[in-house]
Write a sequence for this structure.
């Protein structure tokens, strides 16, 4: 009895350091360390892209072009007046631009902001002091033109502080000089000057104009965080629908579906899924009252919540999300088939981070390495969405062109990926049957019934020359 009990104890569970566990312990620890090293390396490489996109912002701020346009003293009948306002602005800004720039330059993305000194600013200011013009408006001399809807983070964090600093420096330099020149001019009547206090101080105050303010707040997810969920939904549709598609090729009282027809079905079903899911995704923005029906506005006039296509804006927005989801999702389909589990989760991390890094931040401020972001799909989804929602400078043709290119390439690669995926699965299945004394195939002539075929133990089953995941 003792011997039997002892034998039972040795054939039961063993401790971690049991000598019988030496081989499997080495294999498990080795595989665990190898996988851990790969995971750590992957995380370091991919997350570095997200942090890296923000590393050289200070050194690249010069790429955020700001035009300084000085019309002071250049328009008749005051072109013989020595300008004071314009030269002070250009000196403070430390940037003199040859030629003329318009407000449309900001709208057309030739620059991120513009400082415009209006015609005859100095002459009108001097005239207001000399005639006691009580209606003189100090904000009519200089305009600071921005467009926050182009990229609100960049505008708020970098452009607006710079403009504020320029305004403060201009006031500190121009104010005392102007007041001193007025008070020291004996030809001016003090009683007349008193009638135009705004012309004396501050004299000139820059007027900030945001051509396309970013808003409402609920628009934030449509051009930023919400689009991450568009990627995730497109990715998870692969896992959700794969078992359903596989019912065609796992015979249960029916023959397996031909390989090429399965490919056609999967492509059509996947694109139809994206078509309807992208509609629901777009409806969320509509439900939270993001404006989709406001008419377009003038490129040179400020406007609140204009849309690029008026009442047709929602349909165009839906199509952007649909084609964008196809571009993002079909890439996930292909990679999911090729790399399989558990690496599909790693692909999702890579796909999200690389797209977010190059879509939610201004690539102009990123290191040159990130120029590939101009070809990434989410960058064009964001650009197109902003153009539609805020009536910004449109590159919708380019945006759709890049997205359609992604869709076309992924559709072309899909059959190849399916063949690779089938080969991987069958190769793993054959290796798994090496130690068995038989292997199983599906007999197509018997309506897909399982057929057990004996073989010598240790030998690989023959390569199954057949349709997609089906036996002969």
């Amino acid at each position: 009895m003792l011997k039997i009990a002892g034998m039972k104890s040795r054939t039961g569970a063993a401790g971690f350091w049991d000598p019988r566990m030496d081989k499997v312990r080495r294999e498990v620890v080795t595989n665990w360390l190898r996988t851990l090293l790969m995971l750590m390396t992957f995380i370091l490489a991919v997350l570095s892209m997200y942090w890296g996109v923000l590393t050289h912002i200070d050194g690249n701020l010069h790429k955020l072009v700001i035009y300084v346009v000085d019309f002071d003293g250049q328009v008749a009948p005051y072109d013989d007046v020595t300008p004071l306002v314009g030269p002070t602005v250009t000196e403070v800004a430390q940037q003199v631009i040859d030629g003329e720039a318009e407000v449309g330059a900001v709208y057309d993305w030739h620059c991120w902001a513009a400082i415009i000194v209006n015609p005859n600013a100095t002459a009108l200011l001097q005239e207001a002091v000399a005639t006691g013009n009580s209606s003189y408006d100090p904000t009519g001399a200089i305009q600071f033109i921005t467009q926050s809807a182009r990229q609100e983070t960049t505008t708020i964090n970098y452009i607006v502080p710079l403009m504020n600093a320029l305004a403060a420096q201009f006031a500190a330099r121009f104010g005392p000089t102007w007041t001193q020149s007025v008070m020291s001019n004996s030809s001016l009547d003090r009683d007349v000057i008193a009638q135009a206090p705004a012309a004396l101080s501050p004299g000139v105050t820059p007027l900030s104009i945001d051509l396309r303010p970013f808003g409402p707040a609920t628009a934030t997810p449509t051009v930023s965080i919400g689009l991450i969920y568009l990627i995730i939904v497109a990715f998870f549709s692969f896992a959700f629908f794969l078992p359903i598609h596989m019912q065609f090729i796992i015979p249960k009282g029916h023959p397996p579906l031909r390989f090429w027809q399965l490919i056609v079905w999967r492509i059509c079903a996947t694109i139809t899924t994206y078509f309807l899911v992208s509609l629901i995704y777009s409806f969320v923005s509509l439900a939270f009252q993001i404006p989709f029906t406001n008419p377009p506005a003038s490129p040179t006039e400020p406007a609140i919540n204009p849309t690029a296509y008026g009442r047709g804006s929602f349909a165009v927005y839906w199509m952007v999300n649909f084609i964008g989801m196809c571009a993002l999702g079909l890439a996930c389909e292909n990679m999911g088939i090729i790399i399989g589990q558990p690496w599909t989760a790693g692909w999702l991390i890579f796909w999200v981070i690389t797209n977010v890094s190059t879509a939610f931040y201004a690539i102009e401020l990123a290191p040159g390495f990130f120029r590939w972001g101009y070809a990434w799909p989410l960058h064009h989804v964001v650009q197109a969405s902003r153009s539609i929602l805020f009536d910004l400078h449109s590159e919708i043709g380019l945006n759709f062109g890049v997205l359609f290119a992604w869709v076309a390439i992924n559709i072309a690669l899909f059959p190849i990926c399916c063949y690779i995926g089938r080969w991987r699965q069958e190769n793993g299945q054959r290796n798994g049957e090496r130690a068995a004394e038989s292997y199983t195939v599906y007999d197509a002539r018997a309506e897909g019934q399982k057929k057990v075929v004996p073989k010598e133990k240790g030998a690989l089953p023959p390569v199954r020359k057949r349709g997609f995941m089906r036996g002969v």
Notes: The chain has two domains: 64-210, 217-432.
